[in-house]
Design goal:
Elements lengths: L3 E8 L2 E4 L2 E4 L2 E4 L2 E5 L3 E8 L4 E4 L1 E6 L4 H6 L10 H10 L2 E8 L7 H15 L3 E6 L8 H10 L4 E5 L12 H10 L3 E5 L3 H13 L8 H4 L2 H18 L3 E3 L5 H12 L4 E5 L1 H5 L22 H13 L4 E2 L8 H4 L19 H10 L6 H15 L17 E11 L18 E11 L2 E5 L2 E2 L15
Parallel strand pairs: 1-6, 2-7, 8-9, 9-10, 11-12, 12-13, 13-14, 14-15
Antiparallel strand pairs: 1-4, 2-3, 4-5, 7-16, 16-17, 17-18, 18-19
Helix pairs in contact: 4-5, 5-8, 8-9
Bound molecules: zinc ion (ZN).
The site of zinc ion has 5 residues, from loops.
Length: about 450
């Protein structure tokens, strides 16, 4: 084979991509992978000996704030990362693509919100990105709006069954999900039953047990199981594929397993919180820092989720990055119903999963790549452009040092959240270099990215 010359060569690393692991060079030209293996030289070369070469992470579930959103609620705190600091956190943790939940503000349609966020994210993002329109109303025009958004490259729809306005059974909700299915858009569903949450929350407050420490009781497993059953039923009714976000419990996973066994297109995401922590954390004085919805569960749930990762019953691990400052999380005026939900997890998602999953032998390296990159790329219409190390794929690479050990310290990480729920954990396995579309954006730990370098990813309807 004649020696080819490329823009960039990554030499000597162990390339891990679905179904294959081998020591091979990667030649990159024009931002894409042009050759894997064989003789090659590059204008720029990276020595990857001793490193794993992984597809850059695809995190299909984040909450980043754009300038308009940041100004929309002047009297309340909001998530603290924008597309720039979110990109920095992503890159530091090996992630090269993120997908944001796009909420309509008062008076906006989904289409307005997407147009606004398209313009504002483009100026700030340094990783590639796409948007999930969040269902903002139900009316005569909703189905056509969902179809038009999908045709414009936004082929997904986020639905919160936990929101009383969109509770299962609300007239028009099934029509919206059916429209998404017809348009080739995947419906992402937050599965907690709105009515059951309302009851559990009221009951806690009225019995004088409304402290944030009781947050897990405000959102019981039964409400999640009910929501999952509703989502599956809506999928069965409409024929639309359903993607269940941040699944947290063994019982809910069991319902998904049954639905999949029956042949329904039901996909399952979980998030790091449920893999690494249990509700025992709520006995700590600063319990509010662990609040996310659904709440932390029991050890048996945690075990079931790890089993689901290993077997493939769970498709993706996404961060649900929703960062707050510690002071905002610990605000003493909040209770078990009003507690601020979400944590920063973009930078820690892949290292924690590698350390607790691959390094411990709970999941294989292949599975790690599927869970953090390949499966999300497939589900959201980006494979094999993203999620693979193959000729023609975007050159999105995390050059992973499996032996690097660091102690988590959220105050020193890239997110503007000044803490991590894993502060003090010793984590083994971090990216040393990160390449996004052929550009080195992390070099020996130093970020070289600039705002606006990230590209929006058009998703063709599936
Ligand atoms: Zn979320």
């Amino acid at each position: 084979m004649a020696e080819e010359r490329f823009d960039l060569v990554v030499r000597g690393g162990t390339v891990v991509t679905p179904g294959r692991q081998e020591v091979a060079g990667i030649g990159v030209s024009g931002g894409r992978i042009a050759q894997v293996g064989g003789p090659m030289t590059g204008d720029e070369e990276i020595d990857a000996r001793g490193l794993l070469v992984l597809p850059g992470g695809v995190d299909a579930h984040v909450h980043l704030v754009t300038p308009t959103l940041a100004k929309a609620f002047p009297d309340e705190p909001i998530w603290v990362d924008d597309f720039w600091t979110g990109s920095l956190a992503a890159i530091a943790g090996g992630i090269t693509t993120v997908a944001n939940m796009t909420f309509a503000l008062d008076g906006e349609t989904m289409t307005d919100a997407v147009a606004r966020e398209m313009a504002e994210a483009a100026a700030e993002a340094a990783v590639d990105w796409f948007l999930h329109p969040v269902l903002a109303g139900l009316g005569d025009g909703t189905a056509a709006e969902i179809a038009a958004l999908a045709a414009d490259g936004h082929a997904s729809l986020k639905v919160f069954l936990s929101n009383p306005d969109f509770a299962a059974g609300t007239p028009g909700l099934a029509d919206a999900i059916a429209a998404a299915g017809r348009a080739g858009a995947l419906t992402l569903v937050h599965c907690e039953d709105a009515g059951m949450l309302a009851h559990a929350g009221h009951a806690l407050i009225e019995s004088g047990r409304g402290a944030v420490a009781n947050f897990p009781e405000a959102r019981p497993v039964s409400a999640e199981v009910e929501g999952v059953e509703q989502a599956i039923a809506l999928g069965r009714l409409t024929g639309a594929p359903i993607y269940i976000v941040h699944l947290s419990s063994a019982a809910a996973l069991d319902r998904c397993r049954q639905a999949r066994a029956a042949g329904l297109p039901v996909y399952v995401e979980t998030r790091p919180l449920y893999l690494h922590l249990t509700r025992d954390r709520f006995a700590e004085p600063d319990a509010a820092k662990y609040v996310g919805a659904p709440p932390l569960r029991e050890q048996a749930d945690r075990d079931a989720l790890w089993h689901g990762l290993a077997t493939g019953e769970i498709d993706t691990v996404c961060s649900d990055h929703a960062p707050w400052t510690l002071a905002d999380k610990l605000d003493p005026d909040l209770n078990a119903v009003t507690a601020r939900q979400g944590v920063a997890d973009l930078e820690t998602l892949m290292p924690m999963l590698y350390s607790e999953g691959v390094a411990t032998g709970r999941i294989t390296l292949d599975r790690f790549v599927e869970l953090t990159s390949t499966n999300a790329a497939r589900r959201f219409g980006l494979y094999p452009r993203k999620g693979a190390i193959a000729v023609g794929s975007d050159a999105d690479l995390a050059l992973w040092d499996p032996d690097e050990r660091r102690t988590i310290d959220g105050a020193r990480m890239q997110s503007r959240a000044d803490y991590s729920p894993y502060d003090g954990w010793i984590v083994r396995g971090w990216p040393r270099h990160v390449i996004r579309r052929g550009q080195v954006v992390l070099s020996d730990g130093a970020c070289l990215a600039r705002p606006g370098q990230g590209q929006w990813l058009r998703r063709n309807p599936g």
